[in-house]
Write a structure and sequence with these properties.
Elements: H1 2-10, E1 23-25, H2 27-32, E2 39-44, H3 55-69, E3 74-80, H4 84-96, E4 99-105, H5 114-121, E5 125-129, H6 135-148, E6 153-155, H7 163-183, E7 189-194, H8 198-210, E8 215-220, H9 225-243, E9 257-259, H10 272-285, H11 294-306, E10 315-320
Parallel strand pairs: 2-10, 3-4, 3-6, 4-5, 7-8, 7-10, 8-9
Antiparallel strand pairs: 1-2
The protein binds pyridoxal-5'-phosphate (PLP).
Pyridoxal-5'-phosphate binds next to helix 4, strand 7 and helix 8.
């Protein structure tokens, strides 16, 4: 355990967001959800102090250190037209003096909005893939072309959900422990939006490595639960090897909990429950969720509270993973 933890702490990283994010109480939301609602906390990674924040900042801090070590001069990554990951990668390239090429699937907008607008503001070059399935081959061919021109491209897989990216997120648990120490409230459960798996793998690994006994529940934004939990498990297993720890030190010996009942008709399509969640949190707490990920995750949390999945004595922490630019898409 000590070795794996030491390896995690010594992984190189670049600092994009130097400041810890707060954990706040959601007391007005709690009252609105009725007398048996558990204590609700929120980890405000939407406030990470770089490029409009969000979970990608934590993952990219370690992944970009790998790119630096590889001597990269160009970052290539992919996502949807409104990808939060693409936006943060574009900004990180700008901040580190690296060129950024984004491969996105979706229709080019005449007037870019939301994250697509920010991608251009940060100076990224955007290539369009016809479908999600075409993104990887297009990234590979862009990388091959750049290499042939004497450049040094570094390909970042979808969502920076690599073992290194998950390790970056795992470090967020050390930050959470400082929040916990300051507030005296220790979460029994952490609920968050899950999609490419790196955030969930990082949270599970971080809890195991730093000794925080919180249960982690990922609410899927798109993937079926079985596939997403297998992805998270595979990331955890690779991370265990990378950090020199056993499966148990990294939390890979327990079931990975993913709930896919809140996706609705598909990725990015609002549901009645996600719209209710977005509105409830805005009107009771003045906190903005995003329509694609965090509103669906909050819808999942609210339904679990209404179903009596938690006791009134429990403390549940909602990890806000950002994405608000999606509201302006
Ligand atoms: C705002 C937001 N929340 C959650 C997620 C899910 O994170 P992950 O892809 O690491 O599972 C994403 C990623 O796409 C995101 O942009």
């Amino acid at each position: 355990m000590a070795t794996a933890l030491a390896s995690l702490r010594s992984l190189p990283s670049v600092t994009l967001a130097a400041h810890p994010t707060p954990v706040d109480r959601l007391d007005r939301l709690r009252s609105a959800l009725g007398p048996s609602c558990p204590t609700l906390l929120i980890k405000r990674d939407d406030l990470l102090s770089f490029a409009m924040g969000g979970n990608k900042v934590r993952k990219l801090q370690t992944v970009l250190a790998e790119a630096n070590l590889a001597g990269a001069d160009t970052l290539i990554t992919c996502g949807g037209v409104q990808s939060n990951h693409c936006r943060v990668t574009a900004a990180a390239g700008a901040a580190l003096g690296l060129k950024v090429v984004l491969v996105v699937n979706g229709t080019p907008q005449d007037v870019p909005t939301g994250n697509a607008l920010l991608d251009r503001l940060f100076g990224a070059q955007v290539h369009y893939a016809t479908t999600r399935q075409d993104r990887d081959s297009l990234m590979a061919s862009v990388a091959a072309d750049l290499t042939a021109q004497g450049q040094r491209p570094f390909v970042i897989p979808l969502g920076a959900s690599t073992p290194t990216g998950a390790a970056g997120f795992a470090r967020g648990i050390e930050e959470l422990l400082v929040n916990v120490h300051q507030s005296g409230s220790r979460p029994d459960t952490i609920v968050h939006a899950s999609s490419s798996g790196g955030t969930q793998a990082g949270l599970i690994a971080g809890c195991a490595l730093f000794g925080l006994k919180s249960r982690v529940i990922g609410i899927s934004a798109d993937e079926p639960a079985a596939r997403l939990s297998a992805t998270v498990l595979a990331l955890l297993e690779e991370l265990a090897v990378r950090l020199g720890g056993s499966r148990a030190t990294i939390g890979a010996d327990k079931d990975v909990v993913v709930d896919d009942r809140f996706v609705g008709d598909g990725y990015g399509l609002p549901t009645a429950a996600s719209t209710e969640a977005l509105t409830l949190v805005a009107r009771h707490e003045g906190i903005v969720l995003d329509p694609v990920y965090t509103a669906k995750a909050m819808a999942g949390l609210i339904e679990k509270i209404r179903d009596g999945a938690f006791s009134i004595d429990d403390t549940v922490l909602f990890w806000h993973t950002g994405g608000q630019a999606g509201l302006f898409a």
